[in-house]
Amino acid sequence: MNVLQLEGAGAAPWGPPLLDDISLALEPGQVLGLAGPNGAGKSSLLRLIAGDIPLAAGRLQLGGKSRDQWPRRQLARRLAYLPQLSLLNFPYTVEEVVALGRMPHDTGLAIDDGIMARAMAATDITGLQRRLYTRLSGGEKQRVQLARVLCQVWDAGPGGLLLLDEPTTALDLAHQQLVLGTVQQLAATGCAVVLVVHDLNLVAGLADTIAVLQDGRVAACGPPREIFTEQLFREIFAIDVLIQQHPGRDQPLVIGR
Prior knowledge:
Largest sheet: 6 strands, mixed
Structural class: alpha/beta
Radius of gyration: 18 Å
Oligomer: single chain
Helix content: 25-40%
CATH class: Alpha Beta
């Protein structure tokens, strides 16, 4: 059974359609990358899946059921969403912020502490756990918020779905690689992942499938080596690139001309 399925889905929360005729399916453990120019609808699609904006047309199913059929607590145990910007101005410690991800669960303190420890290690914030969140740098805050959503679906398994909107923003190269490696590890447990990453070479090395959006519609969808063509970049991104085989990985390499 698909973790996520959209059929002709549309959204128009403020008048003109933001998304139109979106059809996508995601199986357990798959990683779907969303690509496209600014304003193409990537963040809007994540918000639609997360329930932040309503479905105006078509169908959206999670685990074979519509969102409305899921009790809120059950849905929170299997679906986590990290937006581009997470505002938190209360002087919580890092550990307290990460613990928010375990609120929907009834697994007990010992299990929750173990999951939190692994999530903090995976995002390299173990040494920050006693620090006040409000005193962290932008990149540190990003990693704390990522640890929080990881905790929420850490043990969700094949029914889990993690939505990440630009999770590597404000991160240095080492922490970008750490985050993407953590996403791969989570996907290996069966949790499906949908993410937006503007560095297309990063997403090409991570995603099983890439959906390229343009004006709120899916312009192309498939494996990176099939989707990333010089023609697509000219037509969708309005740039000229050279597509080559990555010398160290089984993925295409996008080189700006």
